[in-house]
Amino acid sequence: MPTFNTGSTGFMLLATSLVMLMTPGLAFFYGGLASKRNILGIMMQSFVSLGITTIMWYSFGYSLCFSGSGPIIGDLSNAFLRGIDSMTPFGNGSIPMFLFISYQMMFAIITPALITGAFTGRVSFKAYLIFLILWQIFVYYPFVHMIWGGGILAQWGVMDFAGGIVVHTTAGFAALASVFFVGSRLEKGGKPNSIPLVAIGTGLLWFGWYGFNAGSELQVDNITAQAFLNTDIAASFATITWLIIEWKREGKPKFVGLMTGAVAGLATITPAAGFVPVWAAAIIGIVSGLLCYFAVHMKNRLGWDDALDVWGVHGVGGFIGTILLGVFASTAVNGNIVNGLIYGNVPFFFTQLLATVIAAVYGFFFTYAMLWLINIITPVRVSEAEERAGLDTALHQEDAYTD
Predict the structure, then answer these.
(1) Mean pLDDT calculated for residue range 130-147
(2) What is d(CA 37, CA 245) in angstroms, rounded to the nearest whole number?
(3) 25: Cβ–Cβ under 8 A, 6 or more apart, which residues?
(4) Which CATH superfamily is domain 6-389 in?
């Protein structure tokens, strides 16, 4: 009978709970940024993933991601968790397999929910449910298997500590594809309906991100602490970088910008959190604040109606974070990896770059094609009358506020 490490098991239970909390946090973040008529619609798209994704993960999702030896996708040998019980160990035996399954399930829940901020107020709930299911099967599950499940990208030597490719790049570029397919809102430029709600969401996301990144070590050791500190350092530097740029360009320090910068920094450090030294995390945070800010600015100038800046924050953040991992990775921090570009390892840098480009291109084009197919089954975009009325009333017959 295996003896699990109580410290690691207890910490991973906490980390799993923190990552679960990020989905409601995302709902608050997006709900506060949305228009007053679409608060419940966007929040429901996050919360419904808690239910549907859990069912999928238990039924076949975990198995497709982490069983089998296929180069792109796993098999169904562990469908419905067949062959696994509460005493089955994970990895070196420090935690139960059930705990690893639960932890990874929380990642699967939040990843497609990230995309919803791009098309807020425009997509029908029925089409979104189909999207939620298909996108996980054909985008999320393959990239989990290819990188974390021993698939082809892992065999190439691609590294991704907590989801720069698997979560943020795929979701961010899928969000951009959805913007191009769905089109712009009828009424653009609305202000956030509740900045305090955005603040609550940001706080929950930042808090949960410690579980997201530090928990990805899957045990308690020095790398866990490294990832925890790197997460906070990068987020803080990105927050202040964004604040300074926006203050200089617009003449006023903006609270929404401050919070957006924090999320950008958190997304950007995610792939590198347990692989780079603290000084590199600070640089990654500064670069994140700069590039993500200007990505959002470019998006606005080009007229891409990514309503809540999913591409500029998560897509660009995940993309540059994974590439910067190829620059700053250090075996002195984590002996299980290779050194990055600044230590002379040019091939690793280009491996990271290639894998990130593959994820971005596939996430974009497959999402666009999938939305086209869904649109044949049921209209993806709501009618003009429904959009003007707001999705809360038109689709759900509920109102966030009773005034």
Answers:
(1) 98
(2) 31
(3) 200, 201, 202, 203, 204, 205, 207, 208
(4) Ammonium transporter AmtB like domains (1.10.3430.10)
How far apart are the C-alpha atoms of 250 and 70, rounded to whole Å?
51
Answer yes or no: are the C-beta atoms of 261 and 251 closer than 8 Å: no
- pLDDT of 1 over the 90 cut: no
Total count of residues recorded for the chain = 403
- Read off the amino acid at residue 35: S
CB-CB contact of 15 with 102 (8 Å): no
Q: What is the pLDDT of residues 240-296, one digit of tens each?
A: 999 999 999 999 999 999 999 999 999 999 999 999 999 999 999 999 999 999 999
Structural domain boundaries of the chain?
6-389
Amino acid identity of 261?
G
Residue 99: what residue type?
L
DSSP designation for 123: B
Chain center to CA of 393: 29
Query: Tens digits of per-residue pLDDT, 318-350?
Result: 999 999 999 999 999 999 999 999 999 999 999
Output the CA angle 297-299-305, nearest 5 degrees.
125
CA end-to-end span of the chain: 60
Average pLDDT rounded to a whole number, residues 193-200? 96
